[in-house]
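# nightly structure sweep
# worker-07 picked up a monomer target from the shared queue
# config: single-sequence mode, recycle default, output format = structure tokens
# input follows
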Amino acid sequence: MIDIQTYLPAKRKATSSGWVSFNAPCCVHNGETQDRRRRGGIKTNDNDWSYHCFNCGFTASFVLGRTLSFKARRLLSWLNVPQEEIERINLESLKHRSIEGILDDRQSEKTTTQRVQFKNKMLVESAQLIDDSDQDLIEYLQSRSIDYHEYPFMKDQQQKRPGILIPFTYNNQIVGQTIRFLDDRKPKYLNDLPTGYVFGMDWQSENWQQVIVVEGVFDALSISGVAVLHADVNDAQVQLIQSLGRDVVVVPDQDTAGMKLVDRAVELGWGVSMPDWPDDIKDVNDAVRTLGKLTTLLTIMQAKDTSRIKIELRKKQIVKRLRD
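# output follows
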């Protein structure tokens, strides 16, 4: 099979997380200016690969054993892969096709059809991936026990306030963003997201039996959960979370606003977890910073409850502590 990296531009950069960034070839074909900031990225796994452009939002992927998709064909042609080579790749891939692969394709199509769709959005031209030179941004992420290589954290060079731009993705397409400003001024966050959006859906693995629902972006990033981005869950978000088909565990912030999320979770029949953390731990990210990820996850699962009475008792304990 083809080694797609042999067709990438000479000017490229590999990251420790396995992504290779280079000037995206798709932008000029999608009505955007030519990329000169290496905002295209590709990640390979044996013969399989995934591509994402953080300028025009174009994505494509290839899995051995499946038909070469239209978008994958377009990307290969933009990378100057000869047409006869593209056809050879498709034929070679189909030779590895199995019954399991066909069923996977059908299930993938079914899931995509059933899931909510959001309109794709393009990031501002001045947005750029964080690199090793952005020490202030990296140190902030490290202070929250988050590795900046594990998510495409960005910066907006036109913003007068220092901040981290976090793209919101769904089905690996950009549908919005938030900026977390690092100074002491308000607002701390500047959000641009569609109604009903849930952050973190793209990294939920099919073999996971639980989905942990939290409030904030950094909470979700800390434990690979999903974030509803406020202390409530609207009907569209409920539909999206339940489409995962697994047990739901809600971990609210341990503050007054977070208790509203508890009421909504009980109404929906979801599990709730309010671990007995030290008083200075208010949310999941605080817990990870203090206790570590594994211990935080263990305390969450140990404190999970579905009994309305027990949940109400625990809620009253937290409210009393907040008042005292």
